[in-house]
# Entry
Amino acid sequence: MRIHLTVNGTGRTWEVAPGDTLLDVLRREGFAGVKKGCGTGDCGACTVLLNGRAVNACLVLAVKAEGHTVVTIEGVAQGGRLHPVQEAFLEAGAVQCGYCTPGMVLSAVSLLSHNPDPSEAEICEAISGNLCRCTGYVKQIAAIERAAARMRESQ
Amino acid sequence: MKKRESRAFVVVGKSEAKVDGRGLVTGRPMFVADVDVSDALVIKMLWSPYAHARIASIDTADAERMPGVACVLTHKNTPATRHTTAGQGFPEPSPYDARMFDTKVRFVGDRVAAVAAETEEVAERALAAIRVEYEELPAVLSIDEARRPGAPIVHDESDATGIYDPSKNVVADVDIDVGDVAVGFGESDLIVETTCETQYAQHTPIETHVVLASLDADDRLVLRTSTQVPFHVRRIVAQTLGIPVHRIRVVKPRIGGGFGVKQEVLLEDVAGWVTLQTRRPALFTLSRREEFTSSRTRHPMRVRVKVGVKKTGLVHAIEMEAVSNTGAYGAHGLTVLANTGSKTLPLYNKAENAHFFGQAVYTNLPVGGAYRGYGATQGYFALETAMDEAAERLGLDPIEFRLRNAIRTGEGSPIFAKLGEGREGVSQTVKSCELERCLEVGAERIGWTSARSKKERRGSWVHGVGMSIMMQGSGIPEIDMGAATIKMNEDGSFNLLVGATDLGTGSDTILAQIAAEVLGVPLAKILVTSSDTDVTPFDVGAYASSTTYVSGMAVQRAAEKVREQILGVAAPMLGVSTERLALRSESVIGEAGASVSLSRVCQRAMYETDQFQIAATASCVPSESPPPFLANFARVAVDTDTGVIKVLHYVAVVDCGVAINPRLAEGQVEGAIVNGIGYALSEEMQFSSRGRVRNPTLFDYKIPGALDIPRIDVVLVDSYEPTGPMGAKSVGEIGINGPIPTIANAIYDAVGVRLRQTPFTPERVLEALQRV
# Structure
């Protein structure tokens, strides 16, 4: 069956099987920044924004994305300019292996889009579905605080 | 975080952003399976449903006939060479007890057969069509069962080698002595003895094991794989498949975490064989469930420590006995066991009498392997519990007790020479040890004097603080090797080629920083290529906390050779001899401010006069393994109603020598501590009565998330290791050893019970509370 959706601002029409997840299809179509860590919604590595909300792409059937807007990590930087969250992740040392990074960045982008001044507890809550085994979260939380501050300043 | 004062370094000691960071935050296709795999066969494995059984018959005819199935592999059509999956230096200290596919299965999750098919669905259907008759055998599912006289024998095959005593399920046996502990205990005024047990735990890298095999234009096998040990993969796959090393190329792209579990050759032999048989690319990925059941785990251990102390507060004798469960295969069995003693006992070098002994035993359970900490983690639980108890019984503050007994700069320990990587070790004297400073800083941060022994109660919650100290090593002396090649380009940039394996640790970045420092250029002028066996020089890989110290020294030496060549070219340009020249700010600087740019130097060497490629290769095989040191402090709350433990604040103060990149070094410790907190409180592989993993998901096996972490302070103290590159030691593993004993000691401070079995779940805490 055929689905129509917008991915990172571009309209797409894809042939998918009824059982395909959004994760399967995005990776198949070349959005390799969307990572698979479990396939059961436990790790958050496949986080994408669906109509602006962070979701686990492994738990969304591709057909449910019909007519919707998806943002993957490939669509977060604009014209080669990093998003403040991406910049802050680099500067704060929040990236180690980088496998959880796309999902973590998207969860943070989603949080900051509706809460520009989150508390530490709100940041932890927002990324609680994104497991990281390398960093211990310390520098990721610091990076999100730094990005929030920078985004507030620039407004 | 404490900001470190910069020394005379320009690039080293700075928290530069990771050289691969930009690609990682923008989601560029940098991992194994991120390339186009649409034409690759998909490999799926049939795993044993039994803990112990012989394969009486296996019928793959139906599976082979299915449309879309390219091949089916079993013990009947694959090489039978016994080998070890442990990616260690050659000859490996692990037994040759594994076959690609065997006629016997030894744990639930052992290999039975593999299918390569056009799609995953076809592969799954083909697996279901394989008919296997098993003769189930009695299984051994614990250390005690494995050691019982007459126990079923896990490895009864005649062609396995390197097993200490297969008839008794003993993989390895270690027994070393210093002085005489019996006499030592007799001379002691206080004896403390404790036995602690640790559980089955899994590394859970967020990227599971994955390999893509293909043939290049010359029909050589190319393995693009998520590994910590590319050169060991090449050697072990060549050995297992019976093909020459030069017919294999191993490429490690970015990998999604390892923590030791990828120091293992788990998938590459099968994917390689499929590609050689079918001439098709083949992708083999472990599912999360398979990562739990069929990859590798931390060796569960029972460790007994007996300490004899004199009235003076000096430890006079220590005995440590460790029994390790290595599961169904002996990967890392001997060396993890040996490290349980060799990475712990030298810390208390005042003990004139020491005895370490133990065994690693087979069971019909998942296989142990390398896991960050590598035996030391298990050893420190018992050792630091015993030391806490000894201090208490002497009426000494535990910090004071550690200060009296711990090793110091200028001191050695006979254990260093007696016990090494599964064989004799290497004698060494500690040349940098800032443990005293670590204790001082940590005690202040946690508020030790005001919080200790207060048993402050809020409702059902009681607070306590605890501490522990530890050391690790920096590589394996006289065994590990790293090498680096540096070549110069005409714009004054340099290619740095290293076999060292960045598994997310940031080693590409810190190795580039070392090169940049020596060559007087900014980090951006060092272009790193790592871990491609066709391109980069040899390196044993990322394990044993070796990369910064061993590979880093190789990089420093290669850069120094290149510097000499640059100065040799520049000397006639500036009209002075080389010893009057320096490299700084991308130029060769002479006296009185005369200078010539690096790009001019390289242009001359490439195009103009006495032309040659400015380039050098250097190696490092270290003659010692300087330990990093760590002081841990934790404040915990114990809910006496429910048994729930909350860690409120964790302080880790580290002496890792000069931190080449302080922020990355802090990140190593922070990540290790959180992993250790999970291991201390919640992570545990649970088994059915027939040896099946009951919780092989990230839902049921609880690793810490962002909501589960305490406030964590990591402090790097100023230190300088004279034998290290730029004064550096290691930092990768040590942090994971801290949480178990530190939290256990804090729980004791709060509620007066000693927990001796991890993880400290509410059930275990409540049970312990009810015993007092």
Summary: Chain B has 20 helices and 27 strands. The CA atoms of residues 154 and 169 of chain B lie 6 Å apart.
